[in-house]
Amino acid sequence: MLAALxxxxxxxxxxxxxxxxxxDEQYTLFLTGQxxxxxxxxxxxxxxxxxxxxxxxxxxxxxxxxxxxxxxxxPLYFWAVSAWRGLAGDSLFAARLASVLFSVVTLGxxxxxxxxxxxxxxxxxxxxxxxxxxAYTGAIARGFALAQMLNVAGVALLAGADRRxxxxxxxxxxxxxxxxxxxxxxxxxxxxxxWLALQGRTRSAYPLLLATVGFAVWLPADLWxxxxxxxxxxxxxxxxxxxxxxxxxxxxxxxNVFGGLPLYVDGIARTSVTAALALSLVGMIAxxxxxxxxxxxxxxxxLLAMATxxxxxxxLLLGAVFDNTPIELRYLAFATPFIGLxxxxxxxxxxxxxxxxxxxxxxxxxxTRPETMQPARATAIAATSLVGDGxxxxxYSNDGVGIVGAFAVEASPAMRLLVVRHDASPAxxxxxxxxxxxxxxxxxxxxxxSRATLPAMRLAFDGPCWRAAGDxxxxxxxxxxxxx
Length: 484
Fold this sequence. Notes:
Layout: H1 2-18, H2 23-31, E1 45-46, H3 47-54, H4 60-70, H5 76-88, H6 92-116, H7 121-130, H8 132-137, H9 144-159, H10 165-179, H11 186-200, H12 206-216, H13 219-229, H14 242-258, H15 267-290, H16 298-322, H17 329-332, H18 336-346, H19 349-368, H20 376-387, E2 391-395, H21 402-410, E3 416-420, H22 426-432, E4 438-442, H23 448-460, E5 466-472, E6 475-480
Parallel strand pairs: 2-3, 2-4
Antiparallel strand pairs: 1-3, 4-6, 5-6
Helix pairs in contact: 1-6, 1-7, 1-19, 2-21, 3-21, 4-13, 5-6, 6-7, 6-9, 6-18, 7-18, 7-19, 9-10, 10-11, 10-12, 11-12, 11-16, 14-16, 15-18, 16-18, 20-21, 22-23
C-alpha cells in the first residue's frame, strides 16, 4: 500500500514537472500573486517581468474581492495555494505541487474506502492514479485536486459502518467545502446525500439530516460568490444539443480512463485504436456490472456507482437547463476515484493488469506527448529560434492572462514581448514594434478574443516594408526592410 502511494506521488510529481504551462493555470498564479488582471503596457515587456507579476502573495480578502469581480470560481483553492506558495515558492511547478499533495491524500482516502468495502487497496490506488483524468487534474495548478480530496474524504466517512453524528456532520461539511473549491464538485456531494436518503428508507433518517446540515453550511458562501460571477463567462460553451453532448460525453469518458492514445497515431490506426478503447470501456462496464457482488456490501456498491455516475449525469443536466455543453475531461475527473474502486473490486486480476498497462502508456503520453499539451511551450521554443534581437507579439485572451502568462512561463526571461489588444489596428500594432528589426507573431488562437486578434496581427506586416523571415510551430517571423 505504501509502495503504491509512493509510486503515485512520484508519477504525479513527474507530470507536474514535465507538462508545459497551461492557459487556466495563469489565473491561479496572477490571482495569488501581484495582480489578478494586469494592465499590459502599450510597448514591450519582458517575459521575466511578466513572471514577476505572478510572484508575491495576495491576501485572502484581495483574492475574494478579485474572484467576485473577475472570475467564476469560489475561493477555497486559491486561498490554499496562496498560503502554499508562501512556503514552496512562486513558480508554476511549486503551485502544481499543492495539487500533487492533495491528490496523494485523496489516494490515501481511496485506500481507506477500499478497505472498508473489502476491495484490494493497492490496486484501487493504482487504478485511480492510472486514470488519465485523475493524473491530469491532480498535477495542474487548479482547484480540482482539492475539491476531489474533500469529496473522497466525505465518502470515506460515509463508507464506514460507523454512523455517529460527528461522522455524518463531518461528511456533509466536507462535501460542502468541496463546492467551495469547485462548484461542480457538488455533483458527488449531492449523489452521496441521495444515497443517504435511500439508506434512510430502511434505517434512520438522522444521518441524512446531519449530513445535509453540514453541506448546507457552505451554501451561503457559495451563493455570495456565484451570484456575483454568474454573468462572467456567458458564451464560454457551445449551445446544448443532446446527441452531440452524448457523443462528447462518451469520448471524454473513455479519455478519462484511457487518455489520449488515439491522438498519437493517424489514419486507420487512429480509428482502430479508438474502436479498441471504446470496446475495452464497454467490456469493463459489463464486467463491473456482472461481477458487482465481489464488492462485499450492497450499500457500498450503490454508493460507488452513484458517485461514478453523478458527474456525467450532472453535466448533462446542467447543459440541458442552461443551454450549453460544459462537458470537459477535467469535470468528469471527479468520478475517477470511484471508477478506480469499482475496477479494483470487480475486475479479475489479469484484466486489472491489462488496464494498468494501457493506463501506463497513456500516462507516458500525458508527460511527454505534445498532442496532449497546450501550445505555449512548443510555441515559445519556436519563437526563441526565430526572434533574435526582435520582439514576439502575443494576442490578448478572453481573461487577459492565460495566453500571455503561459508563454512567459515557457520563454526566456529576457525575451521581449508585446501584448496585442483585441481591438488594435494594424497601424497601432506596427507602432508598438517601432525600433525592432524583427517581429515574431505567436499565433495562439486559444479562445474567441485571441482568434479575433490574429487577422490584424497578420495584416500589420503584410506590406512592402516587411519581409517574411521564417516560420515554425504557431509562429511567423518578419524582418523590417524599410527605415522607420
